Automatic annotation (TrEMBL):
Lineage: superkingdom: Eukaryota
Organism from which the protein derives: Penicillium concentricum
Residue ranges of every copy of the HD domain listed in the record: 48-132
Upper lineage: Eukaryota, Fungi, Dikarya, Ascomycota, Pezizomycotina
Name of the protein: HD domain-containing protein
Pfam family of the protein (one): HD
Gene3D superfamilies reported for this sequence: Hypothetical protein af1432
Amino acid sequence: MNLNMTFPQTEQTLTSVEEDTRATIKTLFQFLHVQGQGDYLGEQVTQLEHSLQCAYLATQSPKYRNDPEVILAALLHDVGRFIPATEKMEKMITPDGQYIGRQSHEALGASYLRQIGFSEKVCKLVGAHVMAKRYLVATDQGYYDALSETSKKTLKFQGGGYNTEQVLEAQQDPLLEAKLSVRRWDDLAKKPNFKVPLLEAYEELAYQCLIACQHSPQL
């Protein structure tokens, strides 16, 4: 028996996969639409506006403007704040009683995207925007000084800046530069009344990224 033989997919099978993938993207984007209208942790933009600005900044990057996975990760970096499971995560409350989000939303978001079939690159970038913040705080004093007050408060819940060993370990990561870029866009994406493309502009990009993963099994 030839164990290496391949079995061509029928048109019906392909159509089913494509329809399921479209439905998955529709559901994901509905979460973003419905949940994204809320306040973004005291900033002057909504959660959805923040996500759209972050994605737009990725599309303007000379290095990553043609990298759909990086653009998608920028759009979805806070998806862990949108999905229903978010309510199960522990709240971050400052000593003066201010709610500043939920812990581990980045890990929750990465896990969710992995479960629905997105690439490891997308998932790792989404799961790293808190790690990247901690790295930058440890390696760039100017970065910490430029953080918003809310972001400085969440840093305390997120473990603070990296120590030397953690910095050295992070520097071995081939995705480090992309992770830091997503983080920097995250920090900049807080401008009120900043006009950027709507969420629907990214629907086909998200579909193409996800359908590519269905056709290319990841090990």
